[in-house]
């Protein structure tokens, strides 16, 4: 799972993902900053109120707030969602069924490596120098007390036990064999597949839930 990533600036997101400026007011920041769970971060989704198709940038909490939550501060983590559980997990099955898919822009993301016996953080960038477009789900939640509308999102992950690079991340469980560790990886969406992810059918979106080849990564200890 991922618990830290670095986001592009507002201008970089608008240019790279071809999003027109929605208003004269700044919606994000002119700095690249690290995002941690429950912090505010940017994501891109199919425009919520457009009967056709367009993309809109949104800022929300990294940690999806499900429709049934009674308060914003959850007692469990929702910043990562296992893609294998999207149809069954209570927190994610409604956004998945409604097609509430999003792209999370990231210059880099960090993962822990325990091969030395202690935690060594590794940083993952794209080898082509472009930002990542990571698969996510979003939700819009209404605070039952104040009536405030809160945007939030989660980052999808997939089993990486067989991946030559991502299987090396995270602390191994000595009780489990190497092929049954359930090591996790984020799910990058390539630029040519973004429309399919945001606006395709559930079947079409499911086809993109896959590991990225090792050749895409530029990874090294921090």
TrEMBL record:
<dbReference type="InterPro" id="IPR036590">
    <property type="entry name" value="SRAP-like"/>
</dbReference>
<keyword id="KW-0645">Protease</keyword>
<keyword id="KW-0190">Covalent protein-DNA linkage</keyword>
<dbReference type="GO" id="GO:0016787">
    <property type="term" value="F:hydrolase activity"/>
</dbReference>
<dbReference type="InterPro" id="IPR003738">
    <property type="entry name" value="SRAP"/>
</dbReference>
<protein>
    <recommendedName>
        <fullName>Abasic site processing protein</fullName>
        <ecNumber>3.4.-.-</ecNumber>
    </recommendedName>
</protein>
<keyword id="KW-0238">DNA-binding</keyword>
<dbReference type="Pfam" id="PF02586">
    <property type="entry name" value="SRAP"/>
</dbReference>
<keyword id="KW-0378">Hydrolase</keyword>
<comment type="similarity">
    <text>Belongs to the SOS response-associated peptidase family.</text>
</comment>
<keyword id="KW-0456">Lyase</keyword>
<keyword id="KW-0227">DNA damage</keyword>
């Amino acid at each position: 799972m991922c618990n830290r990533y670095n986001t592009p600036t507002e201008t970089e997101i608008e240019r790279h993902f071809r999003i027109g400026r929605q208003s004269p007011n700044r919606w994000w920041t002119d700095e690249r900053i690290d995002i941690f769970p429950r912090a505010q971060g940017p994501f891109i989704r199919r425009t919520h109120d457009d009967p056709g198709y367009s993309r809109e940038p949104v800022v929300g909490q990294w940690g999806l707030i499900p429709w049934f939550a009674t308060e914003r501060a959850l007692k469990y983590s929702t910043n990562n969602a296992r893609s294998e559980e999207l149809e069954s997990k209570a927190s994610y099955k409604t956004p998945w069924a409604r097609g509430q898919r999003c792209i999370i822009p990231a210059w880099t993301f960090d993962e822990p490596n325990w091969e030395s016996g202690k935690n060594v953080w590794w940083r993952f960038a794209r080898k082509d120098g472009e930002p990542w477009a990571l698969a996510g789900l979003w939700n819009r939640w209404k605070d039952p007390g104040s009536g405030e509308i809160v945007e939030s999102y989660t980052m999808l992950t997939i089993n990486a036990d067989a991946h030559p690079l991502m299987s090396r991340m995270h602390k191994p469980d000595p009780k489990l064999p190497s092929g049954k560790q359930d090591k996790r990886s984020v799910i990058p969406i390539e630029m040519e597949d973004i429309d399919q992810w945001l606006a395709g059918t559930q079947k079409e979106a499911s086809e993109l839930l896959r590991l990225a080849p090792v050749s895409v990564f530029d990874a090294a200890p921090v």
